[in-house]
Known about the structure:
The protein is of the alpha/beta class. The protein has helices spanning 13-20, 51-58, 143-157, 179-186, 204-211, 222-228, 244-254, 258-288, 305-329, 332-353, and strands spanning 3-6, 27-30, 41-44, 62-65, 85-88, 100-102, 130-136, 161-165, 189-194, 215-219, 239-241. β3 (41-44), α2 (51-58) and β4 form a beta-alpha-beta unit.
Amino acid sequence: MIVLLQDDIIWEFDFINIEILSNKYEISTFRANEQPPFANIIIFNYKFKNSMEYVKKNKPHVVLFMSDERGGYASVTEYARHTHLFIYCYNHDYTYLDNSVQMPLGYVAGFLKGKSIFDIEQKPISEREIIIAFIGDSSKNDRPLMIKKMKELTSERGLNSEIIETVNSWKLDKQKITPEDIFTTYSNSIFVPIGRGYYSLDCFRIYEAIAAGAIPIIVGPKSEIDISFEFNGHSLPALYFDSWDAAKTECGQLLDEPAKLQKIQDELILWFKSRITEIRTLVTRAIDETPMKVSVKRGKKLGGAEYNIAIFDVMLIIILLLYYVCYRLWDSTCHDFIDRVSCRYYRHAEQIWR
């Protein structure tokens, strides 16, 4: 089994290797400016300029595309026409083929110290000491207002919050706050507010919060939320609001309902594990499936009328051969029988064509 990973996709390595691929395969890397050899599974982002040419030529079993945060590139759905399984992260208002599945962004490498989310025991809501935690850049988009309202929520109730405003590097060896430390904070927190990044509402912080057992608070337009977190009909069960004022009010009310908060935490963890399990299963099926060789478009199957017509074509050939043999060797009674059968299949085929 050959698995190739673009060499600058380091941030998501643990999530892909441990959760999606179950630590089953040896992963090799390639540079985005190179033309890599054939792979059963290939993982890349927008920097791989010849990606479409590669996928069309090599037809890997699984294509995992890690880009398209901004949207506007509906052409990425074309990858699915040349692979058994197309996995993507950012969902947009595109027309995806049936063999396409949205994958949660996951968590930064080192966040779970090399463990799987299935091996982590999340602390119950009642045992958590921090009400709201946020670690990251507080200057982007609506985040200043987010921080203000979340601080108001905790200060008005005399509760603990941990807001660490820092700009972490995308280079793992230059993190001001390590992924392990972020996990420690989130695993002792009830809420993690999710402000918009440069473009999208979707971000790693959402899934890092869930893996740590915290509840993400997401604020944005309903239309965007419905698309971004759709996950092939399995919508992310986070807390959604149309304003940070509404988030402040309703999260404050939820603090008085610990049983409801515990139910939300349970649903989020189950959701995350279920999505991972689903994608693991799809990857296994994609690898085990034998590529179809009867069609130019890989994976295309005859269906409906096409399939019936193909059967009748075969039947017609058989009947004509019998017809010839019977006229040569049999009596007139048999001739009449074959005539009736032939006419029946002709009429049936004609109805299908129409």
